[in-house]
Design a protein that fits this description.
Order of helices and strands: HHEHEHEHE
Structural class: alpha+beta
Strand order of the largest sheet: 1-2-4-3
Radius of gyration: 17 Å
Shape: globular
Low-confidence stretches: none
Number of helices: 5
Strand content: 15-25%
Largest sheet: 4 strands, antiparallel
Number of strands: 4
Amino acid sequence: MTNTTSIIEAIRTRRTIKSFKPDPIREADLIAWLEAASFAPNHRMNEPWEILLIGPETRAKLNHKTNFGNAPVLLAVLSKPAATPFERDENVMAVSCFVQNFLLGAHEAGAGVYWASLGALPHNRALLSVQEGYDVIGILGVGYPAEEPVARPRTPIASKMTHLP
């Protein structure tokens, strides 16, 4: 069995990064984090994620208020279409797990991620050329943190639990 302390510590210390250093992310590192992310649970092993690497021209058109914290890498993560609403929900959940794995992989390597939801807006879907039926799970700014925010207080988990008979 593996040591879960390091996983728990990574979960507890990961933060949303809003300001990045200009230092580049090595493509090999980015690929390694994406490959690790692909081990996310996904229904029927359909691997419903697709990644768009966003270049400078598209990034400028997205017109994000902070330019994604000046992250050196910008990705959009999509969830593939599904035959039924239930399967769509399964895909969105799996791609969200993919993103969480990516966040943790980047964090372990000393990098950070800004997860923005603005890709789901109709005009941004058009800028990203997102096809009908696809969901934009997020636009991710990736880089090395210029600063790491402190953890915000969390609601005690016991207050979120209901015991059923």
